[in-house]
Design goal:
This protein has 418 residues and is of the alpha/beta class. Helices cover 32% and strands 26% of the residues. Bound molecules: uridine-diphosphate-N-acetylglucosamine.
């Protein structure tokens, strides 16, 4: 099993280019199932999760050509299956996103109960309630969920109990070819949802209001294909911005949409970092001494839960007290024990973590307990005294393209070993 070795202490300097967004490209690839003509997706990050969802589509008869780097040519003209296999769905929860598209395109979907990062129980009740409201029949058993709508879905008004990102995406796809109009209220507003809506609309869909709490979808008879460029990954960008802030770095993060980074930039400034926003780049300069801050994770446009672990590293070495409240997932503090092993002073109580800043973290052996926790271990290693050895890095490979090369290019001492 591969490991990462990080030697702390180097001040990061230079320019790093951010890849396309993992959380945008996964639902967009699923949405390609809807189109009867070919699609070309540009700025596709080279990630294990992308390969997993492509395999799911290939099981359904979709042809995918990935010979051009960062481009996927997808031909869904001939869908021959409706079942997403166990080993792929358990490897990645987002595989469940094919359910909405399959229901719309072929009126049937059989999908294994989803897996993914172990950050809470992560139910799918909101997805299923939405499908049922659209007229699908749901049957569950033997680890599978089967949905069917042999005569097609019918538009309706759906109020979501919580603005779930995945459920909003799944319902946009399902409703895109339903008879009549669907209104989704209290839906998620994440930028990745806007990107999905733009892709569906480019194929001939009628999705309005994405990026607000109410989305209206007028069902169309057929969706086609076309070309779409995926938005930059705001979480990868955020991870590099924190890296610059914590190690007295001086970094320009390129290929970003600053608008998507507002909640993070506000907190970095509060902690004392100098952050300048350009048109498609952000420049961060880390201060000598960081100040303790308070962060509460929330659905967009609140502070993203996917940046919580990385931001906690900053808090570990900031002067004074900091506090994190995780409101999106119920079990997303697994990185705390690893950071404590490195010398951090953190106490947790329910969904809140209280952090007393320490002068130094110390390198030791730690685990990437999930994707973003893995990124946090890299950041902690970059500012720690000595060497940090990170195991279970397959989590990091799911969501960060070329993380080692990108950090090395900024002057970090990091290597991947077998
Ligand atoms: C997506 C992102 C993930 C991010 C999360 C929150 C992708 C591929 N993944 O995950 O990186 O951390 O949004 O920003 O885009 N919930 C229910 N019932 C449901 C669905 C969700 O109770 O049917 C709960 C979940 O358990 C969780 C919360 O809602 O506590 C948020 O989940 P959701 O927004 O659905 O996240 P994902 O789409 O899984």
């Amino acid at each position: 099993m591969d490991r990462l070795l990080v030697q702390g202490g180097n001040k990061l300097k230079g320019i790093v280019r951010i890849s396309g967004a993992k959380n945008a490209v996964l639902p967009i690839i699923a949405a390609a199932i809807l189109g009867t003509k070919k699609s070309a997706l540009l700025e596709v990050p080279n990630l294990d999760d992308v390969q997993t969802i492509c395999k799911v589509l290939e099981c359904l008869g979709v042809k995918i050509d990935n010979t051009i780097p960062h481009t996927l040519k997808i031909d869904s003209s001939n869908i021959i299956g409706f079942e997403a296999p166990y080993e792929l769905v358990t490897a990645m929860r987002a595989s469940f996103l094919v359910m909405g598209a399959l229901l719309a395109r072929v009126g049937r979907a059989k999908i294994s109960q989803p897996g993914g990062c172990a950050i809470g129980s992560r139910p799918i009740d909101i997805h299923l309630k939405g499908f049922e409201a659209l007229g699908a029949k749901i049957e569950q058993g033997h680890g599978y969920i089967e949905a069917s709508a042999p005569h097609g879905l019918v538009g309706t008004t759906i109020y979501m109990d919580f603005p779930s990102v995945g459920a909003t995406e799944n319902l946009i796809m399902a409703a895109s070819m339903a008879k009549g109009t669907t209104i989704i209220e209290n839906c998620a507003e994440e930028p990745e949802i806007v990107d999905l809506a733009n892709y569906v609309n480019m194929m001939g869909g009628k999705v309005r209001g994405a990026g607000t709490p109410t989305i209206r979808i007028d069902g169309v008879k057929e969706l086609t294909g076309g070309e779409h460029t995926v938005i930059p990954d705001r979480i990868e960008a955020g991870t590099f911005l924190v890296a610059g802030a914590i190690g007295q770095g001086d970094i320009v993060v390129e290929n970003v949409l600053c608008e998507h980074l507002k909640p993070l930039i506000a907190k970095l400034r509060e902690a004392g970092a100098l952050v300048e926003e350009g048109i498609d780049a952000v420049h961060v300069v880390g201060p000598k001494t960081l100040k303790g801050i308070t962060v509460k994770t929330l659905p967009y446009p609140g502070f993203p839960t996917d940046m919580q672990a990385q931001m906690m590293v900053l808090m570990c070495i900031a002067k004074g007290q900091s506090e994190v409240t995780e409101t999106v997932f119920e079990n997303r503090f697994m990185h705390v024990d690893e950071l404590v092993r490195m010398g951090a002073n953190i106490r947790t109580s329910g969904r809140t973590a209280m952090i007393d800043g320490v002068k130094k973290l110390y390198g030791c052996q730690v685990k990437a307990t999930d994707l973003r926790a893995g990124a946090a271990m890299v950041l902690a290693g970059l500012v720690a005294d000595g060497t940090t050895e990170i195991t279970d890095i397959y989590h990091i490979d799911r969501g960060y393209e070329n993380i080692v090369q990108k950090f090395r290019q900024l002057g970090a001492n990091i290597e991947r070993v077998r």
